[in-house]
């Protein structure tokens, strides 16, 4: 750490001394002394850091050195900051001085110059004292010789470097003369005048000075990230701190925040800060004192809640990275953003900007700009992008504001060769729909052909641009809501396109509608993922039959495409069909014989699942059926599904049972899940045929109260999860005790009164979770017999059970004392936070209700005999709990709740304090929700679950801060917005971002009244089981959710399989169990960079000619091929090979002579598998000319390391694992002078003893290696 810092300082200082820049500053003598002192210290630092890590005195000396080095860094940084300040000041006033045609930056501030000189002299004295102190430690001199190479690897330094004055030679001489004479006459310290001719030259000075990489979190203090979590914010601060990072901490489904509050922080106390990361802690306001962080390079406040930034941020002259991702409320940026001339990375993903600040095009150092919002004012148009050399991702919004194609062309997207992702967005509004020349405009937005991902959203033209056919490197295309497009361009010809998503393009009939005629055509040759949603006119994948389409298509997702049909897709492995799963779609599924995963749902017609759909799917491994609302029975003929491992049935309300014959053939089934099937009552005795079943899940199937006797035959069953929220189960099914190998049991039944004594018979049980069973008041004594039980969690239980299980005190504690992890909590929360409980407020009904701050759940009202009337409900005084932030009110879904009197008045009495931020109401049977909901002005989230008698929602659209709204199972509600006031324009739900609607059978629309400005910020909407819902366009909506096999008979891989894949970069041959040879004709695979052959057990060798053409291959892996014995001499043709891995190939014991020709090979991994007979490393290995990394593993017969190992002079890392017969190291290892890491893990103490530091016979052979680990695995196993 200190070595890298000092070396960086030296690399900076030496050019300054050589170019006499110190003379201009008036500190040339101090600068020379400083350089000499640092060189003296540097010579011993490597020894100090590496060989004395535990010496406290030396560590104190290193800390003093680092503090001093940081001070030097600050001084040099202040010089550069002053230049930037003058530049900005002159730019805004137009008063920059010039010499000839060059710009002049004077240090007029005498006080500043004197201060810099004084600081330089002070630090020189301090460093000299530190240098003298080194003598008492007797360090060895280990001078860093390759400082240039070292510096290249540490490109994160912020240290000021001026290797030369940039400008014309005659101007340099003139300026130096003027400066020297002027300064001598006034007897003052000299000023510095860097000379530049242009903005480009200005950037060159500062890349030289501050060429920070994007991730400044890896700054100079790479190994010492300063994570700060303050207990308070008023006194927090440290001028020595270079980096502060505060993180949101998550546990389970709850989150807590660091108590450090940046919005209240006085940044003047962090004068040397370079990096400030406050990601995800929801800062509401950045203090204006942030302008005091004059050294700041990296600022990350993503996920914050502020709607603007302070103007003072524009004086952070050194700022290079500003991350504002997910600042959803951020509407505008400061108008002077153009002053941040060093800014290189500006991240604005998912911000809500209305337009960009003016003249952002002046930020010519900018490398990344994730969002550009076209504005209406001067200086905010697309022309600002013209001269920015942007890379990475660029999203352009509000393209409907662009007036003509010439304005669009000024963005110069075609010239941005570093850009990889381009997102073009129009707003879905009248202005977009009426935009003139829109087809010419999108043609003018042509990007550079290097683009890899393209998204076009809300485009109203009838044709997509022609330039889409020129982006040959494109990997992903997404077309969203291009509703006027008549057809797609011939994108099937794009050679590298892997992912295609098409959403809401109602007029498109075919995906492939324009491939050329004549000869065989392989359309979409690289496509792997195809998504089609909301395409009501889509008829098929191709207009013309007989084409070789989609040869690599492995995944296809279909939703709301009612007229679609398709033929067999030979490579298709995964298919998902949701919403409007018509008979035509079902018939098409039956042709996809290669499917291994099928998810199908959204059918409102089928009473019996069509048996012919599954008849040909003999390779199917996973089947998920959901939302077949009328399905009553499952097909009997499933015996052919021999490979099926997972079966899931969800939301099939009419399904009653699985017939015995329907389960008989599922011999490979490992997981069975049945959820939310209201009428399901029987698993049937056919369950016993599932001999491989490992996991059984039954959830929310209210009529299932027993398990069949056949469960005792399920010897593989390890996990059972059973829950039923409205189930009448009062005792666990007795048959459960006979499951012979059960390890995990999760039960959740609110009516369950006790745990049975036979629970102790489940002797294999390791984890027991009991959730939401408040009537269980004690544990059975037999639980002590569960000796293998390691985890017991009882959550949302009664207070009595929690008391009885209290550690060391409760009556039941002795029964569970043997269990490693025990958690018992009467609340539903899974975090036990003491500050949430306030016992002094008292309770109702034996403590089932208590006052709290933070999070409060009031559950099971039907059990509370005291809650007979609103007065009882008022006693908890929720309205007085101003610290409460989250409130959950839950009734049980049963007859007692349904018959409860005065339930509306009772809910009114539970009014909370208006500070509440999150509200959940569940199983409420009243017809109206409470009026106090309209007083919750700070509310951020509302969830309403199963309030089935409610006739309508209160006017929650008026709540100003509501961001998330979820409504489930409210059958009588017709509209979400049903009660906004009349008169004038009204913005309903002004802050709502996420809307979830689930099982609203009567819902007709989002608003009863047309014309309202609803949901202006809505980005995500999820709709499930809302059959009558319709809605108009939502202009801001971003996310809408509306619920080949290779033949193993091949002995030689057919050459024609690879024949046309000339652009192939990666090839993996996997589990060709009978494959013996590889084709010779691979010369056409010029682009191939990676080749992997995995688990091809009969594969023996790579043919010599088969490798000749692979000139670009960089990585070759042969893994778990039991018969593989020869790489062949063809290996020598792989001139670009960098990595070679031979893993678990027990018959390979030699390498070919050709390895000596592999001049690019840097990494070699050889793992023999414990059945390999290798007794000595292949001698040819010594001739690999540039090897840096070598791993030798799992050769139990290898007896020694050869002496020629010392010939591998470029080796930097050597790892040996699982070679127990090696008992010593060869003497030649001392010749490996580049070796930085040696790791040996083995079984046996002898080599460990010989390598013991300072004692062992082999220790002297390894002293030159910085990191040595010799690890005896047997010692670890014994311990």
What is the first-to-last residue Cα distance? 34 Å
What CATH architecture label of the domain at 273-457 applies? Alpha-Beta Horseshoe
Strand segment tally = 54
Evaluate the radius of gyration. 36 Å
- Given as residue ranges, the uncertain stretches (5+ residues, pLDDT < 50) are 93-107, 143-205, 208-237, 248-259, 828-866, 1044-1050, 1275-1279
By CATH reckoning, the class of the domain at 273-457 would read: Alpha Beta
**Mean pLDDT reading:** 76
GO molecular function: ATP binding
GO biological process, one term: defense response
Domain R13L1/DRL21-like LRR repeat region: 382-505, 863-970
Pfam family, one: LRR_R13L1-DRL21
Task: From the structure above, extract its key features.
single chain, 1279 residues, alpha/beta, Leucine-rich repeat, LRR (right-handed beta-alpha superhelix), 19-stranded parallel sheet, nine-stranded parallel sheet, 22 helices, 17% helix, disordered C terminus
Question: Would you mind describing this structure in some detail?
Answer:
The protein has 1279 residues and is an alpha/beta fold. Among the domains are: 1-79; 273-457, Alpha-Beta Horseshoe (Leucine-rich repeat, LRR (right-handed beta-alpha superhelix)). α12 links the parallel β21 and β22 (597-603). The longest helix has 38 residues, at 56-93. It is globular and about 90 Å long. It starts with a helix and ends with a helix. Mean pLDDT is 76; it is low at 93-107, 143-205, 208-237, 248-259, 828-866, 1044-1050 and 1275-1279.
